[in-house]
Write the C-alpha cells for this entry.
Amino acid sequence: MTYPFLSGLRVVESSAFIAAPLAGLALAQHGADVIRVDMIGGGIDYARMPRMPHPQGRGRSLYWTALNKGKRSIAIDLRRPEGRELVQQLATAPGPDAGVLLTNIGTPWLAHEVLAARRADVITCTIQGNADGSTALDYTVHCATGYPAITGGGSLQRPVNQVLPAWDIACAWQAALAIAAALRARERSGRGAQLQLALSDVAFTTLSHVGVLAEAELLHQDRPSIGNHLYGAFGRDFGTADGARIMVAAISINQWKALVATCAIAEPIAALERRLGLDFSDEAQRFEAREEIAALVEPWFAERTRKEAEAALEANKACWGRYDLPTGLLAHDARVSAANPVFERIATPGIGTHLSAGAAVRASGWEREPTPGAPLLGTHTDEVLHEVLGLDSGAIGRLHDARVVAGAQEDPTA
Amino acid sequence: MTYPFLSGLRVVESSAFIAAPLAGLALAQHGADVIRVDMIGGGIDYARMPRMPHPQGRGRSLYWTALNKGKRSIAIDLRRPEGRELVQQLATAPGPDAGVLLTNIGTPWLAHEVLAARRADVITCTIQGNADGSTALDYTVHCATGYPAITGGGSLQRPVNQVLPAWDIACAWQAALAIAAALRARERSGRGAQLQLALSDVAFTTLSHVGVLAEAELLHQDRPSIGNHLYGAFGRDFGTADGARIMVAAISINQWKALVATCAIAEPIAALERRLGLDFSDEAQRFEAREEIAALVEPWFAERTRKEAEAALEANKACWGRYDLPTGLLAHDARVSAANPVFERIATPGIGTHLSAGAAVRASGWEREPTPGAPLLGTHTDEVLHEVLGLDSGAIGRLHDARVVAGAQEDPTA
C-alpha cells in the first residue's frame, strides 16, 4: 500500500543489495515514482537467494522482488557511454520534483559533480560501506559495534553475529529521510545537495544515540554479556510445559506489576527484596537481581502450557511475545495477514500472488494505492524514455536496435 | 552536527524510551526545532541505565541524554488539566512549520481528534507497540520474527535474543520519514495527517521487504540456522593466532576473488569445486559449500596474527571487519572519533564533555551547527512558553507558582 505523501516526486535509483533498494522502496511506498535502473540482464543482486524453483535455475529472486516492488524498471547497458548518458539524463531531468539520484554504486559517471554540471540543484544520495570509499557491509560493520560480543552470551573471542541486516535497514530509512529533508531545503533555497551516507557511520552514530559510546568513554565500560536477559530492567525468555518459549519484559513499573501478578509471586518477590536489600520498583534493581527474579518466574512457565501462560499474561496485560517462525506467523498471527491493512496481496511477474507489505505507517483518511509487484527488468524502459526524456518511438527503437536499452523480454527470468 | 534541511520546522515530542525520542533526534539533526515535553521531575525513561555515578544515585542517564541531545526541554505537570492544555497549545500552535506532534504515549488528551479540533491540519505521529494499542517492545516483537531461532545457531526451542534494539531504531527513522513526507503533503494540499506506526508492523513489514515472508509463503521454508555464516553467499568469522576474531564476507564476485587471493587458496578451491561439482562464481553455490570453504580459510587465519591477517586482507581489498568493543573503538578506530566529521565533542549538563554523533549523513557544502547537549528538564520552559505561546513573564511566573511548569532547577539530577 502506498500513500500519496510524496506523489509527483521522481527518484532515479541505481543500486544493489539492501540499503539503497530499501531506501527507494521507502520513498516509493510514500508515493514517489522510483525508477530503478539496472544493467540489461540484471545487476549483481538480481539472482540473490532465495529464488523461485526453476529447472534451469533461472527462477526469480524473492529477495530482489521484495525490495523492488512498487518501482518502475528500466534496463540499460551501463558499460556503454550511450547507456550512461541516458542514466545521467534521467537523474537530471528538469522539474521541481525531479533531479534526485539514489545509489550505492560508487562509479565516477554517477558522481555528484558530473550530474551537478547538468543540473546544478540535483540531489544525489550515495550509500557507501565506509566513508573513505572502502568496502563494508552489514556483517563487517556489525562486528565492530561490540554487539556480537554480548549477543547470546557471546564474548569477543566467541562472537555471535546478528542475522537481521539491521544496519542496512537503518541506513535505508536514514537515506530516505535525508532525501526528503534535502528536497524541502531545495524547495526553499534552490540549492541541491550531495548526500553521502556510510553504513559504518550509521552503525557508529547509533552507538552514540543509544548511549553506548558515552558509557564506554565516561564510565570506561562495555555492556555486559547477559544472554537472553534484557539490559537495565527485567526481561527474559521462558519455556512452557509444552516446549514453547515466551519472551516477557518488565521495563515499566506497570509491566513489572503485571508480571508479578501473572505469576502470583508477590510474596516471594517481597522476600527476595528483603533478602537482597533491593527495591524492585526501581528497574535498575530488577536488573541487578535478574537471575534471582528469573528463578522465581521460571517454574510458573514450566508448569503451564503455552496457551495457559499466554492467556494469563494477556489477562494481566503483561508485556510478552511468543517466539515464532515466518511460516508460523503466516499460519496463525493475524498481524501478518491481509487482515492487517499494512499488508496486501500483490501479483509479482514470474512469482505469482502473495502477501506483501506496504509502508508500516498508517495514515487515517489518506487514500492508498495498491503496490504493483516488482517488474521484470526493463518493463518500463520505453515509457520512461518517452515520459521523462521525451524520446519518440523512432529514437527508442534505435536504442533497442543498438542494444543500449532492453525491454522485459530480455529479462533472464522471463 | 545538525544540517539546516528542516530548519524552521517545529516538532513537539511527548515520548519515552527509544523509538519516539530517536525519531525526534533524527528530525532535530536534520534541522528541526524539537521540543521535548516531560513531566516535572522526568518521565518513565529519565533514569534509565546506564547512569552517571552519584552518591545518592541521582546521576544523569547516559541513555536519556544520548537520545535527547539537540532538543529543547519543557517540564510540565502532565497530570493536571492546565499542563495538558499547554501541551495541546504547543502542538497546535499556528504556522506552516508548526503543528506537528510526535509521541509514543497513547493518552486520550493527545489523541489526533483532540488536537485536530484545535488545528485542523495538525500532523500527529503516534508510535505504538501493536496497532491494536496493546503493549509490545523491541524484544517482544523480535521474538516473533523468527530471527532469534536462527541467531547464533539457535532454534525455536533455544532462541537467541538480539541485543541491538533494531526495531526501535527502524521505527524511529520510519516515523521521521513519515512526518517529513506528511509535511510535504500538507504544504501542497493543506491536509494534516494522523500517522500511526506500530513496532510490530515495522518488524513484520520488514520481513516482507527482505523476502523472508514470500519465502515462507511460496517456498514453505524458514531460513536455516547457520551460526555465524552469512546467508546466500560466503562469509563467517575466523580466529587469528593471537586470539582476535575477524569477519570476512564474499558476497560479490570481487569480494570472493579477493578472499581467495588473500588466503592463496585458488588451487584447493578449484579442487573443491571439481569434487563437489559446484561453481563458486555463483554466490549460491558458495553458500552451499560454506563449511568446506570455511575449512580451507580457517588455517590461514589461525597461522597469522591479527595484524598480519588484516594487512593481507587490506592489500587484497577483501571485505572484512574486526570484532571489537565500544571501548576498543574509542581507543583505536578513527571512524569513532572527532576526526570523523559525523562526530563532535559536546558538553552535556551534569555529565561533562564527551564524543557524540550528529546525523550520519554528510552533505557537502551545507553548513552544520554543533549539537547542544541534552538539556536538564525544563531548561527551555520559559523561552518555549514565551516564543511559541506568546506568554509574558507574569503569566509564566504564575504557571511556575502553581507548579504547572518547572525550570531546570527542578531537574532531580540538577
In short: Chain B touches chain A through 161 residues (CB under 8 Å). Chain B has a mean pLDDT of 97.
